[in-house]
Design brief:
Rossmann fold; 13 helices; transcription corepressor activity; elongated; 2 domains; alpha/beta
Length: about 325
């Protein structure tokens, strides 16, 4: 009996999957796309698939335990938030992602948001489009030279951002409980506590995984500790920031503004208060994208699915250690 690979939530990508079909067909693997929105959708439609490729479909313990043929889960991206990894590991299911995906793209987007917040580019653009022609709309614009940039997380994306900041001679500090001071120093930053990050940064760029411990790590209490003229940028996971508390904090002056690519609920609600604040820049969870990165990700997903089915080691096996491989 041949193997079958299914793309669980294909509707999220809006592509024809011709590349995937051709690659799998060449090695005798059946490939099919599905539009699964809920746990029940996955359980109903995906029973005959050995490998599931997904963007954000829910793979809870209930779902994983209800799929006896399941051999591997390939997350189309980096984060595995929608997968119960311990449940998958219990069943011997290999969980793959792509930790090399879009690192430079996300760091570039974070850097662009920082530049925009300091130079008021979007604010000036909106002013001109509205019929004004006043440089003074951006009177609070500042230079980046010599500022203190705080990083919440000092992983691979943050390392790219540090390189981009180097010509501006910024002081870079980082809060990362999983890295020691020597490792952070080797990456170009100074290790600090979370409170020191809040109190010393002119702008904080968030690069953390979302866990129960990090959800809303930036809340009203955190914003009260920040500099009055500081900013926060998030290109990581939306729920790391309590965005309603953020809107309140900006309005009362605890900080000056924010640049957000990710949001706790997407799309961002039309009545969300952040939409009405001029010092907030909002983008639609697009930091990850470039045509080159997307093509590479598609290639890696096919490679990893084939590797799991052939019994070889996938390049990016997220639960390798837990599986004892």
């Amino acid at each position: 009996m041949g193997f079958k690979v299914g793309f669980t939530d294909a509707f999220r990508l809006g592509i024809d999957f011709a590349y995937e079909k051709e690659r799998f067909q060449k090695v005798g693997i059946e490939f099919e796309t599905f539009n699964c929105y809920t746990e029940d959708d996955v359980l109903e439609k995906m029973q005959d698939c050995d490998i599931h490729i997904l963007v954000a479909a829910p793979y809870t313990k209930r779902v994983i335990n209800g799929l006896p043929k399941l051999k591997g889960l390939c997350r189309f991206g980096i984060g595995v938030d929608s997968i119960d990894v311990p449940a998958a590991t219990e069943q011997g299911v290999r969980v793959c992602n792509d930790t090399g995906y879009c690192l430079e793209e996300v760091a570039t987007h974070a850097f662009a948001l920082i530049l925009d917040l300091f130079r008021k580019t979007s604010l000036l653009d909106r002013s001109v489009r509205s019929g004004e022609w006043k440089w003074s709309v951006g009177y609070e614009a500042r230079n980046l030279t010599g500022i203190t940039v705080g990083l919440a997380g000092c992983g691979n994306i943050a390392r790219y951002l540090i390189r981009f900041l180097k010509p501006f001679r910024c002081r870079v500090i980082a809060f990362d409980p999983f890295l020691d001071a020597a490792t952070i120093a080797a990456r170009g930053a100074e290790k600090v506590s979370f409170n020191e990050l809040l109190e010393q940064s002119d702008v904080i760029s968030v690069h953390c995984h979302l866990t129960d411990e990090t959800r809303h790590m930036f809340d009203a209490a955190a914003f009260r500790r920040m500099k009055k003229n500081s900013f926060i940028v998030n290109v990581s996971r939306g729920a790391l920031i309590d965005t309603y508390a953020l809107a309140d904090a900006i309005r009362i002056g605890d900080l000056q503004g924010a640049g957000l690519d990710t949001h706790e609920s997407e799309p961002l609600a039309l009545d969300h208060p952040l939409r009405t604040i001029d010092s907030v820049i909002l983008t639609p969870h697009s930091a990850h994208y470039s045509s080159k990165a997307f093509e590479t990700l598609r290639m890696h997903m096919v490679d990893q699915a084939i590797a799991v089915l052939e019994g070889t080691m996938p390049q990016f096996l997220f639960n390798r250690e837990q599986l004892g491989l």
